[in-house]
Model the fold of this input.
Amino acid sequence: MDNEQNLNYAIKLDIFEGPLDLLLYLIKKNEIDIYNIPVALITEQYLQYLKMIKALNLDLAGEYLVMAATLIHIKSRMLLPPPDEPEEEEEDPRAELVRQLLEHKTFKEIASNLASRPLLERDVFTRASFLPEEIEKSTTDEEELTEVSVFELIEAFHRVLSQLDKKELLEIDLEKLSLTDIINEVMEQLTVTKSSTFEDLLKGKRDRRRVIYTFLAILELIKLRMIKAYQTSIFGVIRIFPAVES
Amino acid sequence: MEKIKAVIEALIFASDTPLAPEKIRVVFPEVEKTEIREIIDQLVSEYNERQGGMCLQEVAGGFQFRTNPELSQWVKKLKSTKPHSLSPQAMETLAIIAYKQPIVKSEIESIRGVDVGGPLRNLLDKKLIRIVGRKDVPGKPIIYGTTRKFLEVFNLKDIMDLPSLRELKELNRQQEQVELEIEQEIEQKVEEEKIEDISDL
Done:
């Protein structure tokens, strides 16, 4: 019997999107007025759910614990007698939580509203709708793209470095380089060519500083999610694409 | 005049992306912008009246031919690409960005109550949102905003075309009202039936 109940909850827990969602669910389940939450009852039920999540060995995200602490804090504040001399109108300890819950609820509604609009490629189609499919096919025929990790990028970096002309390393480089300039150069080239390899980006200027700066620029751009790096196979050529439209 | 209308129709058809009226003026520099607008509006209503396979729609600041939403089930049969499917998490994150942009990650997280790293990455990949810049506070957090593609995918003229928060509440209130009325009607019917039952006895 107990097991069966747990199983039931397991399915329900799946749909919770974080602590605010769980709270909204409890409020709805108990048919509670959101502006007048009985904190003791809700806290108790909330903690019960947390126990269940633990019992089911599910990952208990930190946010759930923060919310539990917040609830207990509110509960204890509500138990305190009001100050003898009320200097100023004291805010209901629940006010902040209620505001958060209402905002969360509003955006859940907005999201379902957005999803019900006639969406491109789902409900409506344009003349170009069929095109990307063909383009994708033509590229995948020759190269199967896989996303690369930082380690593979470093690998490619090493490969370029090892191919450097050793004599060049002795020359004094007078060219002033700045990371910002290189970032701009890389982005400029990518907007023109749409995709590029690490080697291409160096444009034949294979001095060590240039290589390092270009590599740093790529790392920074990936971190900023301005570009993406793909590779056809392990040790294959790494191609860089612009990730965000400007 | 009729000729200009035909040309404009052809231009919109031939354009891969929504065509802005300003771009049409490149072809007809001598025609006023308002006049071009009027001609487009005529075309729009002609297509609406015809109730055919496509409509002329204003999206992302331009005009584009799009298939009639009611015909999606048939059009889909010819397409094998996956549609834009967004998880509820991604949808909520997108809604918050759309209404509160420019916005940083921590602000989105305070509304959703959970980490939004995953949904953000997903939305960036789908090019529905973009990095607008960095906020000048400690840590220089990234600022997000929606893209032109967001407008295209969600059939919006511009960002102001989003239903306002007040309109949305009104809409939900009306819906509740309708539901309430239906409930009352059902109750009433049940009552009536009861009375009939009693009279049968």
Remarks:
- Chain A touches chain B at residues 17-21, 61, 63, 67, 100, 103-104, 106-115, 117-130, 132-133, 136, 224-226, 243-245 (CB under 8 Å).
